[in-house]
Amino acid sequence: MSGKYLVTGGAGYVGSVVARHLLEAGAEVVVLDNLSTGFREGVPTGASFIEGDIRDAAKWLDSSFDAVLHFAAFSQVGESVVKPEKYWDNNVGGTMALLGAMREAGVRKLVFSSTAATYGEPKEVPIVESAPTQPTNPYGASKLAVDHMITGEAVAHGLGAVSLRYFNVAGAYGDCGERHDPESHLIPLVLQVAQGKRDAISVYGDDYPTPDGTCVRDYIHVADLAEAHLLALEAAQPGEHLICNLGNGNGFSVRQVVETVRQVTGHPIPEVIAPRRGGDPAVLVASADTARERLGWKPSRADLAGIVADAWEFAQRRAG
Ligand SMILES: NC(=O)c1ccc[n+]([C@@H]2O[C@H](COP(=O)([O-])OP(=O)(O)OC[C@H]3O[C@@H](n4cnc5c(N)ncnc54)[C@H](O)[C@@H]3O)[C@@H](O)[C@H]2O)c1
């Protein structure tokens, strides 16, 4: 794969894995990241690194870039509820500046990290892209606002764009893995219990209308997700904003995840039942038919034990 790509947020979890896939495919990669939640050492070897903010993207973007892959954002749902302004400023304001810089520089292709949180509480599962979008928190609302902004940019200014709505991203790819601080994602949290960093895992609600009473989510391996980004770069068409869900179409409950971590790590994982969290839907499972049909995407790492094993190996390596 030839070409030069700007990866915003490439020092973070997903962006670093996608940057690595781009490099492995032969592309030239420039990472732009302000290290607000990312790590300098997360930037893969071979990528150029600019420590900077997407709001200043005009300083570095020029017509030598073929496309932008845009991961930079704040993504803590709970924080977005108490500090919504932080999310509108960074996620929406930052993307507006980035789109302006792309327009000025004549860079006319974008792949954007959207989220299942744009849908809110689904009326039907699996969730298709035409489902109502009624986010239940400012994080999801900020991502939905950006999706609308991108649609306008495609219609008015000919941008070719693909928004990928991730479900629960998990697993690791070599030395690129999940290290959010604070961590809010289930698999790394349960692995912290296995490592002795936490006493128990809190299970938020065991009275949902699901087979075992706990919430059901669709876990997708970060390497499968990365492959979809490379396909999206090929699929982006001038003037079109394509939106694709990315998930495996299989739901696993919190209890199934905890049990899988017990099996993979060999550690007992104590559970503590806690009250439900507001705005947590019972079931979030993707229909990824659009990604299969429009991108030709075929996830190949859907096995939950394999996803957990990769995340465990990464967590152990970091701890060791
Ligand atoms: N991890 C998931 O399960 C998941 C699910 C759905 C959507 N997403 C989206 O995917 C993207 C990546 O998520 P992640 O889990 O890798 O998060 P992350 O926090 O690990 O990475 C985000 C990166 O963006 C950088 N950043 C933030 N604001 C910036 C700014 N203004 N300028 C420059 N850099 C900035 C951070 O320093 C960080 O390196 C986010 O947009 C997130 O909303 C993630």
From TrEMBL:
<comment type="pathway">
    <text>Carbohydrate metabolism; galactose metabolism.</text>
</comment>
<keyword id="KW-0413">Isomerase</keyword>
<comment type="subunit">
    <text>Homodimer.</text>
</comment>
<keyword id="KW-0520">NAD</keyword>
<dbReference type="Pfam" id="PF01370">
    <property type="entry name" value="Epimerase"/>
</dbReference>
<feature type="domain" description="NAD-dependent epimerase/dehydratase">
    <location>
        <begin position="6"/>
        <end position="241"/>
    </location>
</feature>
<dbReference type="InterPro" id="IPR005886">
    <property type="entry name" value="UDP_G4E"/>
</dbReference>
<protein>
    <recommendedName>
        <fullName>UDP-glucose 4-epimerase</fullName>
        <ecNumber>5.1.3.2</ecNumber>
    </recommendedName>
</protein>
<dbReference type="GO" id="GO:0003978">
    <property type="term" value="F:UDP-glucose 4-epimerase activity"/>
</dbReference>
<keyword id="KW-0119">Carbohydrate metabolism</keyword>
<comment type="similarity">
    <text>Belongs to the NAD(P)-dependent epimerase/dehydratase family.</text>
</comment>
<dbReference type="GO" id="GO:0033499">
    <property type="term" value="P:galactose catabolic process via UDP-galactose, Leloir pathway"/>
</dbReference>
<dbReference type="InterPro" id="IPR036291">
    <property type="entry name" value="NAD(P)-bd_dom_sf"/>
</dbReference>
<dbReference type="InterPro" id="IPR001509">
    <property type="entry name" value="Epimerase_deHydtase"/>
</dbReference>
